[in-house]
Amino acid sequence: MGASYPSGRDVLRDAVRGQRRNVALGSFLGSGHQIGEALVPVLIGIVIDQAVTDSDTGALFLWLAILAVVYVGLALSFRIGAWSGEKASVQAEHSLRITLVRRVLDPGGGAEEGRLPGALANIATEDAKRVGVVNLALMFGISALMGLLTCAVVLLRTSVLLGLVVLLGTPVLLWLGHLLSKPLESRSEAEQERAAHASAVAADLVAGLRILKGIGGESTAIARYRTTSRDSLQATLRAARAQAFQNGMVLALTGCLIAVVALVGGRLAAQGSISLGELVSAVGLALFLLGPLETLAWVNAEFAQGRASAARIAEVLATPQAVTSGGRSLPQQVRGAVRLSGLSHGGLREVDLDIAPGELLGVVATDPAHAADLLRCLSRQTDPEAGTVELDGVPLRDLDPAELRTSLLVAEHDADLFEGTVRENVTAAVIASSESADPEAAMAAAGVAQVAQTLPDGEDTAVSERGRSLSGGQRQRVALARALAADRPVLVLHDPTTAVDAVTEARIAAGLREIRKGRTTVLVTTSPALLAVTDRVVLLDDGRIADTAPHTDLVRRHEAYRAAVLS
What we know:
Blueprint: H1 8-17, H2 20-52, H3 57-104, H4 117-158, H5 160-207, H6 209-215, H7 218-270, H8 276-317, E1 338-345, E2 348-355, E3 360-365, H9 368-378, E4 386-391, E5 394-395, H10 401-404, E6 408-411, E7 420-421, H11 422-426, H12 439-446, H13 448-453, E8 462-463, H14 472-486, E9 490-494, H15 502-515, E10 520-524, H16 528-531, E11 536-541, E12 544-549, H17 551-557, H18 559-566
Parallel strand pairs: 3-10, 3-11, 6-9, 9-10
Antiparallel strand pairs: 1-2, 1-4, 4-5, 7-8, 11-12
Helix pairs in contact: 1-4, 1-8, 2-3, 2-4, 2-8, 3-4, 4-5, 4-8, 5-7, 5-8, 7-8, 12-14, 12-15, 17-18
């Protein structure tokens, strides 16, 4: 997997470290902008003392020209600096999103456990964005501090007392701002949690919209989402109140500091300790302080939200893998011999089974949960609680899951389609180096050729998200064709024809046997048409192998088999 992230602090650190060049450039230019902004009141004070007071027209034009040059420099430095900061922000966001997607799609799995897809999508978008903005906030924070430092130095040169007011008051203000951001951090984390949950529930309901309408469950679904959305709204309002309170308090404290600077400067001018121009500069610098201090208040708020989002990202990235990679490899030429020895997992109990290379095997489980347990072990979504599963004599737990899936493919019953054309969906799992893969033959065997004839653009017809633009039977045939086109040495199919009519199912059964000739194929199904073309069928009853025989023999001698297959 690469780097691991045990804490949100590590996520923030790496997000900044990965963009240090852009942040450094933005901070340098932003600091130049802030220093220039701080010098503007000083230059105005000099104009007053050297040109206005003495009525020196030449000096007036000279200093006005200098001011114009300073403003041009301010505009350019702000523009380029802000661009660098935004670039650092979006690139860090993009990098985090890619890291999250890579972790979710990691062959070892685990990241999706206990999380709905909508929640993961929210973390990969909103939380990644908030962490990315930390780079921009850091750049603006450094720039604001440089502006404050410049302001303090100028005021110290004007009056030690004025400089000390800024130098001592600013750290106190920053410390108070940090304390005020604590409630915002916790409430921001709660806000993102509830927003992610609401997003997940919405995605879940949309995915099952047809089913909900079919069973008349719209009102229950609406009530469920209304409750979830209300919780999310309340969390958002609490976070907004915390942010408003922080902003208001920091603004009030900032106003107090500015008032103190203006008051001290006015008294010094009245006493004759500073000139009129220096007084104007001091008041201008006091007003300038409002900008950097407001920026630092914003930076504190962004850091608080960034820390909360980073913790959520770290939680996903640090999720242990469901299965780990072993140190062994498969033979260069995979024969396709599969052996289950003493396999116990979930409802399965001490299953012993040898599947010969090239065999077409049927598996009938009287309990669907036991079929699911078997599929999870064969696909290595999990390792069995006891016993082993071997491919060509190599235990699956000793293999890298990614390498295993280039040789053994488990095509589950509820496999989704993706946006793209029908053909693109069929060829999605084809390995570029595979010389024997034949998408055309796979589409013919799965009945996709007949489907394409009914579509406006044939196999080039666009498929909407999750294949909703196709009927259930059409989706199932395209998914089956995708599994067949992948051309793996071992293919496990789970109920691939439940949504097609009997005539089509019989045609698919014959085509499946033909296209998989010489390659190991396991059909986990209760379809008589598919079981009839297998070499033999294994009956799993009560989690154990009750019998192994051809389909017709099992129909004749097992009541449990007849109930599962013929009812």
